[in-house]
């Protein structure tokens, strides 16, 4: 039985308790979304079993599964899977379905495919309010994705600013977050600070400052962890 405390925790903006079925669905959704980060093959197994039992008639996974399935398939695939996602983006009807394919493209496994994904996002084929999903997803997918989105942003900042010049600042904010968030070294904080010092973006200054502060804080935390016995303990634990 799910407690009232759990129900309220999952609905912080509502005074209405969720039913156990609603809570189950929300928890399931959150678990599915994090599975690609751990390269879990369980989701692909679930997807296959549901398809075999005809749990849905469409040839594509339901929206709940779609984003995670796309990420797992592309991360373990290559150009053929990449092209399939591009075709899905063109043919799927609902915008939410298209967004799932954009997030899936962020899992591109090679530098060449990651570049193609980032180029596709700014090709004009993607809605302005959606094009940042590719870089956000890629930046969070892996260390290689994090490095490449930052390099791509530096090389193409003028294209990004031209695209978002007449849009709200939040659009470019999302791209900036998808380029610099999550770094955790003093060197990277200095690199980001120097870049935006030489290439200022007044409308996005607050977001840039917040992200640099977050990198500084993460760097200090990482230094404390590395200076303690926590790192040795974790390494020995993982080797068991």
From TrEMBL:
GO terms for cellular component: cytoplasm; extracellular space; membrane. Residues 61-216 form the ERAP1-like C-terminal domain. Pfam families: ERAP1_C (PF11838). GO terms for molecular function: metalloaminopeptidase activity; peptide binding; zinc ion binding. One of its GO terms (biological process) is proteolysis. InterPro entries: ERAP1-like_C_dom, Peptidase_M1_aminopeptidases. Belongs to the peptidase M1 family. PANTHER family: PROTEASE M1 ZINC METALLOPROTEASE (PTHR11533), PUROMYCIN-SENSITIVE AMINOPEPTIDASE-RELATED (PTHR11533:SF174). This is ERAP1-like C-terminal domain-containing protein.
């Amino acid at each position: 039985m799910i407690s009232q405390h759990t129900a309220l925790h999952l609905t912080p903006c509502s005074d209405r308790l969720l039913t156990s079925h609603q809570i189950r669905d929300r928890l399931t959704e959150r678990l599915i979304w994090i599975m690609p980060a751990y390269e879990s093959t369980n989701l692909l197994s679930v997807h296959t079993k549901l398809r075999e039992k005809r749990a849905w008639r469409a040839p594509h996974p339901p929206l709940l599964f779609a984003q995670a399935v796309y990420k797992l398939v592309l991360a373990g695939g290559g150009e053929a899977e990449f092209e399939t996602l591009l075709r899905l983006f063109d043919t799927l009807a609902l915008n939410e379905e298209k967004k799932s394919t954009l997030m899936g493209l962020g899992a591109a496994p090679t530098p060449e495919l990651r570049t193609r994904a980032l180029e596709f996002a700014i090709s004009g084929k993607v809605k302005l309010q959606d094009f940042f999903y590719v870089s956000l997803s890629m930046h969070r997918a892996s260390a290689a994705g994090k490095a490449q989105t930052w390099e791509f942003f530096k090389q193409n900042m003028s294209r990004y600013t031209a695209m978002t010049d007449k849009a709200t600042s939040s659009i470019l904010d999302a791209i900036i977050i998808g380029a610099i968030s999550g770094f955790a070294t003093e060197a990277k904080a200095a690199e980001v600070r120097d870049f935006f010092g030489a290439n200022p973006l007044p409308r996005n200054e607050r977001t840039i400052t917040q992200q640099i502060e977050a990198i500084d804080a993460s760097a200090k935390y990482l230094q404390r962890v590395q200076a303690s016995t926590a790192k040795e303990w974790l390494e020995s634990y993982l080797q068991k």
